[in-house]
Design goal:
The protein has 5 helices and 11 strands. Strand 3 (65-71), helix 3 and strand 4 (110-114) form a beta-alpha-beta unit. It has one domain (2-235): Class I glutamine amidotransferase (GATase) domain (Rossmann fold), CATH 3.40.50. The chain is α/β, with parallel strands linked by helices. The chain has helices at 19-32, 43-52, 91-107, 125-131, 222-235; strands spanning 2-7, 36-41, 65-71, 110-114, 133-134, 146-152, 165-169, 176-177, 182-189, 192-202, 205-210. The radius of gyration is 17 Å and the shape is globular.
């Protein structure tokens, strides 16, 4: 099985998230789960590269990618230190990335999106539609970094056998719903439960989003690593054998 990590770089890097560290930690988890892993800097660049690459058989190399792991930030957000006047992506790059993602979703691909991935790839509507929710500046937010209590919920296969756990992390809150989701974990904030981890089936493809993953400390948690490994196992079962595993409408505040 092959997994490609689309890691924050350039316009998708920011001052808060150490993407090289977290992508390396995710790569280690994926390798332990049985994947051959490649880390590519920049989500658009990584998707476009998949679309262009052709193997010795003449088949696009993208066809052997079972899981895409998205670990990148908001291209419209505050840039990382030293990133001054970064150019907008070319229309050709965006179009090539869009075609590659569309093809992958059509044939069946697993997507694991983590933390700030709720704000990335804004140039590709198909990614936002697959994700099921978006970080909206001025609306979405998170409590201060600290001990996060994760409540496992629902009957999704990923949740089976998992128990509640704590992790040092941020908890993204009030993402704006764009689709229906099946909750796997929630967190408490302001006297309310908020979705934190969820799954979706989109035609032949599958997606898992986790609002955890601010920095490498998140992946020092045995429980969080177990959650991610379980998610990778479920995502690898593509093309999805059946769309809509009990997917429930779980709305965010609007």
């Amino acid at each position: 099985m092959r997994a490609v990590i689309l890691s924050g770089s350039g316009r998708t890097a920011d001052p808060w998230h150490p993407y090289p560290e977290t992508s390396a930690a995710l790569a280690a988890i994926a390798r332990d789960a049985g994947f051959d892993v490649e880390i590519v800097e920049g989500p658009l660049e990584g998707l476009a590269g998949l679309g262009r690459a052709v193997g010795s058989s003449g088949q696009a190399v993208a066809d052997d990618v079972r899981v895409l792991i998205v670990n990148a930030g908001d291209p419209d957000g505050e840039p990382a230190p030293g990133a001054v006047d970064l150019p907008q992506p070319s229309a050709e790059l965006v179009a090539t990335a869009a075609d590659s993602l569309d093809a992958a979703l059509e044939r069946g691909v697993g997507i694991l999106a983590l933390h700030s991935a709720a704000a990335t790839l804004r140039e590709l509507p198909a990614y936002g539609e697959a994700l099921g929710a978006r970080w909206i500046a001025g609306h979405s937010w998170h409590p201060p970094f600290g001990e996060a209590h994760v409540h496992v919920v629902g009957n999704h296969p990923i949740a089976e056998g998992l128990v509640d756990f704590s992790v040092l992390d941020e908890r993204y809150t009030d993402l704006r719903l764009t689709g229906v989701i099946e909750p796997i974990a929630e967190h408490d904030e302001g006297g309310e439960r908020h979705p934190l981890v969820w799954a979706r089936e989109i035609g032949r493809s599958r997606l898992v989003y986790s609002g955890l993953g601010h920095d490498a400390r998140s992946y020092e948690s045995d429980a969080n690593r177990d959650l991610i490994a379980r998610a990778l196992g479920w995502l690898a079962e593509v093309p999805a054998p059946s769309a809509g595993h009990g997917v429930a409408d779980f709305g965010f505040p609007s």
